[in-house]
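Entry 14. Ran structure prediction on the chain below.
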Amino acid sequence: MNDRVKLVLASGSPRRLALLNQAGIEPDLLMPADVDETPDKGELPRHLAQRLARQKGELVAARAKEAGMSAIVVSADTVVAVGRRILPKPELQGEAEECLRLLSGRAHRVFTGLCVVSPRGRSRTRLVETRLRFRRLSHDDITAYLACGEWRGKAGGYAIQGIAGSFVVKLMGSYSSVVGLPLAETIALLAGEGYPVRAGWAERAA
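Output, C-alpha cells:
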C-alpha cells in the first residue's frame, strides 16, 4: 500500500476540478459519489446542501478505505433556492424553463455545502451562502439559453460561468461557490488537515 496521503475529489464535475486546479491543486483521484439528492419533506435548502455534501464525502471516504487508500476526501453540493423553494437540477427543458422564469428579475440564494473527510474518517463541514439577482429575462433570452443546453444538470437551471453570467446584476458572496466549490473555504479545510495546499504554486511562476 502506498502510505502517501492522496487527495480525492468526490465528484465527476469538470467545474469543481477546474476550480481546484485554479487554486494550484491537482487531486490524485476523482471518485463521483452516487447519492439520492431528493430533498426530505420540509427540508430547508441550506440543510440539503450540507447533508448531501457530507453524504458524498463519507461515502467516498468509505470506498477509499475499503481500497486500502489513505486519503483526504473533498466533496460538495450546490443548491439554488428562491425563499424556501429548492430548485431542481433539470434534465428536461420544461424544468429549466420554469427555473429561468422563476429567477427572472428576482433575487435568489445559492448554498454550497462543503465537506472534507480526513484519513481517519473525521468530517469537517462548511456552508457557504451567496445571494444573487438576475436581470429580467426576455422570452428571447430564455428561448436562446434553453437552446444552448448549458442548463442541463445545473442547480437552478443555469451555469454562472457560462452564458448565464450575463444574467447576473448583483452577487454578494462567493463566485466560486456558485460555480460549485467555495475555494477559500476548501483551501482552509485542506490546510487544516495538513495538506500542502501551496505545493503547486511555484509551478505557476513560469
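The helical segments are 14-22, 45-66, 93-103, 139-148, 175-179, 183-192. Will compare against last week's run tomorrow.
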